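Dear support,

I submitted the protein below through the web form. The confirmation email said the job was done, but the results page showed an empty box. After a refresh the structure appeared. I'm attaching both so you can tell me whether what I see now is the final result or a partial one.
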Amino acid sequence: MTKHTISSVRAGLLSKEFSAVELTRQALSFAEAENPKTNAYLSFSPERALAAAERVDARIAAGEDPGALGGVPVAVKDVILTKGLKTTCASKLLENFIAPYDATAIERIEAAGGVIIGKTNCDEFAMGSSNENSAFGPVRNPVALDRVPGGSSGGSAAVVAQGTAVVSLGSDTGGSIRQPASFCGIVGVTPTYGRVSRYGLVAFASSLDHIGPFARNTRDAATLLEVMAGRDPKDATSAEAPVPSYAASMTGNVKGLKIGIPVEYMKHATGETADLVNASFRKLQAMGCELREISLPNTDYAIDTYYIICTAEASSNLARYDGVRYTTRSQNSGTLSDLYKNTRGEGFGAEVKRRIMLGTYVLSHGYYDAYYKKAQMVRNLITQDFNKAFTEVDAIVAPVSPFPAFKLGEKVNDPISMYLSDIYTITGSLAGIPCMSTPCGNTSEGLPVGLQILCKHFGEETMFRLADAFENS
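What the results page shows now:
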């Protein structure tokens, strides 16, 4: 399993080297055996996976194309709904919740022949930067088991890095795909906001949430994104923009591309992270790219802006988890008020409670204009910074994180330090532009470092073209 790509799975199926059912059984067996090392999976779905594999084998037997993801083992972050399977959001509140329908992304993956083998661990309700906020225990980074895999999509990054899934799905609100991809040494893509339907994604901050792919190479990530992308009438925020062939854009030729290096992004990167990122800049120059120093002047306000907007939206979205409908209900409840307080008090973890309280505060009477409204105005300024930059450059490159994967427990009692993990990723999220992490080397301790590539809205073609060329140069 550890060596498979989408193309190698397809080749093996068509050459009759193995069947989809055989591959699926192998994948499930390997994932279950390896999972105790990392705690990356919360559950497995053998019945669903084998049924999907049987459909792929039937297509091949009938002389039909098995699909773009035919027979490919796929893991799914446990905040994305999968009909008939648990969707816990790594929270005690949803410990026994069975999803009543599939997310649109899941429907499209299975229609393309993908095989869903299990649901992955994450920070509770996708709130965190280390995957230590899960109610079911932290995920360990397969590269270094004493370190975090990043968050909140740490489980999805870990299973791809560990080789127990070929590709996986994560969600990204402020860097929850790119940062784990960087920490685990794989590719992670946050598409343009609206490129992939959010229908069936459990909401954290609705104006910032994305679904995106993890893979071990750019082509696999692009293939998975292409399968999921496109307008969905079930999601009013999904875009009408046509979905191009990303594979066609990956020509290997990036000569003449204008690449922006934002001065603000290099302030906090130090040591070997800065060294590896700077070496990547030189590599891009050697590949024929034209590097230009640019400024994104409102970057310094991004963290404050993000944590006002995302907590405000979280406090609203998470109000539905009250013990009355589909959550685990507190047994220590006499009155309706007690039911609400005790269910939420017992069910939510510390980080979720912190964000709900922050969000409720910034939306409260007398503070809405001072905090939330002002944050939305600054968000617009950050977006304008990017729009202006993309009139001068084709792409922007920068670090993903100021540092590589840190040790488990190192930052868990320091929320501010933890929030700074996202200092380079939240700007792209606020602007809604496509961004990705691609590996750019390892530190002397063997810890991966990712290079972030950012492009204009719906500029995934340029992003993949540059990442693929960088990866193969």
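Response: this is the final, complete result; the empty box was a page-load delay. The first helix runs from residue 6 to 14.
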